[in-house]
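Board notes (copied after class):
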Amino acid sequence: MAEIAAKTEKNKTIERLLSESKSLTEKGQTSEAIKLYSKLLESDPKLVRALIQLGKIYETEGQLDKAIKYYRQVAELRPADFFAYTSLGKAQLAHDDTKAAIKSYQKAAALNDDVPAWLYNNLGDALLKDGQAKKAISVFQKALDTGSDHPEGIQRKIEAARTIVQDGPLAKIGWNIDNIALYSGGPAKDFGKVGRETIITLLQNGLRPDHKILDFGCGAVRLGYWIVRLVDSGNYYGIEPDAKMLEAGKKHALGPQLIKSKKPEFSTNSDCDFSVFGQTFDYVVARSILTHTTAGMLIKILKSFKDNSHDDAIMMASYWNLDYPYDGEIGDNQSHDDDRFIRVVKFSLEKIQSLAKAEGLKVSEYRVNPIINHQIWLKIEHADSV
């Protein structure tokens, strides 16, 4: 009887500590909750509920290594537990361990005769992120067939996967960036196309490896993918206020090895300030930037180019002229104090030329290559350049 009573008391203590830990987590006091869960595991290393909750806390806090550690212990203790493997797979995918995530999701699917659509969706994400686009299409289709609650989103993923199959690694980079930052600077399918056409335009206008170039509004580095590989080490500079988009681009479009060897520099300043690098540039490129800048911001950009570039420097910038077929504000009518960054701004060439002239610059259109998304290239130079 005494043994039974002691065991009962121990179970009550465990339940009380689990309840206290859960309450602390709900109040946001995760450090205290972790201490209590860890205390429970000291007395019982196989207490699954404590392992699960520690995994959830660490996953929420972005400490994925620790989350994976605890979820893996749960899976080892409960090898037939469907949710043990889905939790593990989710954390592994967030940690970019796509192959491990695929195995975990596949294990979960094998444990369930009635695989839910959301698991097919997660497995498809892992396959697509791993570059297995054809397999991803098949799995996404199963998600649709099973009755996904979000068929439109699944269909978009299928279309992205088909693009990757057709267009190769650059489409995959664009899709991966969209997954992290929600936007890669345009449709993922055009990630390679826009960058490729831009580097051609820059080369046609004299860009060489020894030139220092600023990619203004570099976003997810869709132009930088090409430019960084072309120019000499230390010659690429990028400005992008959206830090999340920039980090996604650095990770997927460049990667740590290329960054180490080519030493690109980046700034997240939102003041149109080209001087932050302490450099005098030979080239500046601004794709899909003047299409969103009001008159006051355009003046800032022109002035910053003039003040931070050589006398023979060139700035290639795309814009929407007044013939752009969609609604938007007319930059010609805006105050010179208006320095917003908005969805659509259209300018007349004459207005931009007038603003540039006031800053000692000259502007002409460059229409040699195919026009993408109605954006026309402008060639901006110092007024006294030959």
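Comment from the instructor: The chain has two domains: 2-181, 189-382. The first strand starts at residue 213 and ends at 216.
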